[in-house]
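[step 3/7] fold_predict: job queued, chain A
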Amino acid sequence: MNEVRKTFDIDVVITWVDGNDPVLNAKRAKYIQPKEAHEKDIAAPTRYANRGEIYWCVRSVNKFMPWVRRIFLVTDNQDPHVESRIPLEIVDHRVIFRGYEQYLPTFCTSSIEAMLWRIPGLSEHYIYLNDDFMVCRPVTPDMFFPQPGHVLLHARKCSLFWNRLWYSFKYSCGLSCRVNHIQRMMNAAAIAGNDSIFIRLAHTPYPLLRSTLERFYTQHPERLIQNIQNRFRSLQHFRTDEICYIQLWSEGRVQLRPVRPVLMRYYSKKSMMELEWALHRVTKPGSKVCFACFYALDQVSDEIYARISQFAEELLKE
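[step 4/7] structure written:
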């Protein structure tokens, strides 16, 4: 047995929304401004779409991360009715927003992620996953937590100054969304007190320490409000996971590893040939790809969805 598994518990947290739910859609329509309703970086329908990815996500955790103690599935009064051998608990937004109910409902991942550390019974060490994500092969706890209180990230450090300059240029030329995930990482790094670098995160699992986030938001309650007061994505938002990593980086408790060897991403605009190449990266002999992300499956053709479904079912069969 891996030594890390003997010494501390590790939970998985997954956020999920069913964008096909008419109750949720009516709720969102009540608050969204017409000009924002179709902005990709704010509230476009694809941000809430669901095409069954959550079932692959949970099944992949069960198959390839059996050492996980508990899975917490965070939703807005919804339940995907997914089966899991690992104990699974549905956590409603009202639970993690207790004491801050005036900021509900929320339709923004930045807001929700800022409150995940408040899940009752959550272990100190936990891994956050998006629902469009799959684990592709067996992974061990030390791939996320090399030792208690330390995290391992598949990411890289980047210059805050030059990236701010670059993304300002890209936005001015129409090449970047106004509220993009890189901007939210840079916002977080500056808030956490680092004026030189940020850690550029890819779409992989995020190992986090509950106490680090609890300490930050307890010491800076105004930052919690900043991140939860807007119901949709805003320029004020920052990434909570980046806050954790910048703080741990300053204490020498972060290890960085290259992203590409372990991550396969497929975007909805890519062709069948590009999809086959991406899937081959996972299945070829000697592959080290552990994680796969299928972005915006609501926008792919039925043919491509069928191929991805076939791949997932073959990978996850017992």
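[step 5/7] annotate
DSSP finds twelve helices and eleven strands in the chain.
The radius of gyration is 19 Å.
exit 0
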